[in-house]
Amino acid sequence: MPADTLSRDARHLALPQVGADGQRKISAGTALLIGMGGIGCPAATYLASSGIGKLLICDFDTVDETNLGRQVLYGPGHVGQFKAEVAAARLRKVNPDVEVTAIAKRLDEAALNAAVVEADVVLDGCDNFATRFQVNDACVAASRRLITGSAIRFEGQLAVFGPDYARSPCYRCLYIEADESLGNCAGNGVLAPVPGVVGTLMAAEALKFLAGIDEAAPVLRLYDALATEFRHLGIRKRENCQACAAA
User: Fold this and answer.
1) Into how many domains does the chain fold?
2) Is 10 exposed, middle or buried (0-12, 13-18, 19+ CB in 10 A)?
3) Cβ(112)–Cβ(103) under 8 Å?
4) Tens-digit pLDDT profile for residues 222-240
5) C-alpha dihedral sign at 106, 140, 205, 126
6) Is residue 169 one of the residues assigned to a domain?
7) Sheet containing 229-234: which strands, arranged edge to edge?
8) Which amino acids are annotated catalytic?
9) Is 239 within the bounds of a domain?
10) Which of 34, 71, 93, 221 to pair with 123, CA 20 to 30 A apart?
């Protein structure tokens, strides 16, 4: 590794679980981030600062004033601009060695499948179930690790799926289309740091996976910011799951 890279990655290199070999794997890895909101911003920032090789960041939305309290890559001067393009420019400044590709459009099924295949790990921080199901199905088809997170009010959720979907559950084993009636943060509010907590945890899971020290279990992690507590709920493979049953 070049001297400047060694200096940047010194704290990772000091970890026996990571070391030079693990950092090389991180630097060779590609992550796809779906949604560059309050969850995607910190997740992408930590992946970039940690020296991941390539980031694909996807969000077709533009920056709104209501985003600024929790979506930390954006400022007042970015209102009206595409989130993916603004975030890409900011992330390149965080770490110029990382290749960042902005996807500022809604991906159709073919394009989403192609993006998932290109990635080693997929992080989904979007704000609607329809997209989450599509991302899940693409990850199952491509046998890709999926890390998904959400936040609302004072509550955060984090779950990790795959890549061996023949043995482990997928996102559809946890949620079904009927759950779409659940609320969103626009109507219910969200404490600004809560998405940041979830996004940071997602980045940690992605880095562990890329470095080869992954110990993720099929567990739903629930964060309660009011009580400052975490709870873990096991996730079982659903026999009639239309996505992973045939994996």
Assistant:
1) 1
2) exposed
3) no
4) 999 999 999 999 999 988 8
5) positive
6) yes
7) 99-103, 54-58, 30-34, 121-124, 145-152, 155-161, 219-224, 229-234
8) 185
9) no
10) 93
